[in-house]
Amino acid sequence: MVIGNSMNAIAISIDRLFSDLLRRRGEVELLLCLGATGGEASADMFRDAVKAGMIPSINSMMGVGLVFIPGMMTGQILAGSDPLVAVKYQIMVMLMLVGSTAIGSVLVVSLVRRRCFSPDHRMIIKAPEKRHPSA
Total structural domains in the chain? Predict the structure, then answer.
């Protein structure tokens, strides 16, 4: 469960990072020409990518207990556990999920962003080539 949510957040974050870097390539290259490092030139895109990856986890946290009752908490209550204990466990699980998605997104997006720039701070990713369907 933790790994699955982290993988989703990482996939969304990386997709956003690549799309922003390619869409705003001119802006990034301008900043690089003015002396910024790759990290400085892509700081806004990094922040937006991590934020985009965190949206599903944050949305699921907002709904817990109000819109839906999570399975672990329901199972504990039906098994006869004290509801307050079940809620505490569910809060711990939700915090683990959000923490793992945040840590995973930040680490992976940092590593991927570093690979998008050469050691001399040139942007080295290119837009994918469009393929024409063969007739």
Answer: 1
